[in-house]
Amino acid sequence: MSTATYTVSGMTCGHCVSSVKEEVGGVQGVTGVEVDLATGRVTVTGDGPVDPAAVGAAVKEAGYTVVEQP
Amino acid sequence: MSTATYTVSGMTCGHCVSSVKEEVGGVQGVTGVEVDLATGRVTVTGDGPVDPAAVGAAVKEAGYTVVEQP
Fold first, then answer.
1. pTM of structure
2. Which of A23, A33, A43, B30 has the most crowded Cβ, counting Cβ within 10 A?
3. Which residues span the domain enclosing A39?
4. What pairing do the DSSP bridges indicate for beta strands A41-46 and A2-9?
5. Are B33 and B42 in contact (CB under 8 A)?
């Protein structure tokens, strides 16, 4: 099991949160995604190591940007 | 044909715009909805008169508020 926290910029509302959760939730190995809209913190849990580059790509796919990663 | 402009508060991103367009687009008689995110202006066209109360209810259903109506 792994937990990693990213900071994502550009999310402004609950729809943005949903988009990020959906895309990041589809990354291989990811079992949970929590998003704090106010801070932009995205906490990703996995059943094993999760590739930060894949998380970054998923965030970008959703239309946002990772500004800090583990 | 009718055209009316509303001002809606709370929209922060393209997802919000889509939600408003979808809900207001479902109001009886509405044939087009244009949204300017920066100003919050929502222009509603119809094939006849459109009930402003119904537009207000649709905006509320989408999660936002009409602050100015015709």
1. 0.83
2. A33
3. 2-68
4. antiparallel
5. yes
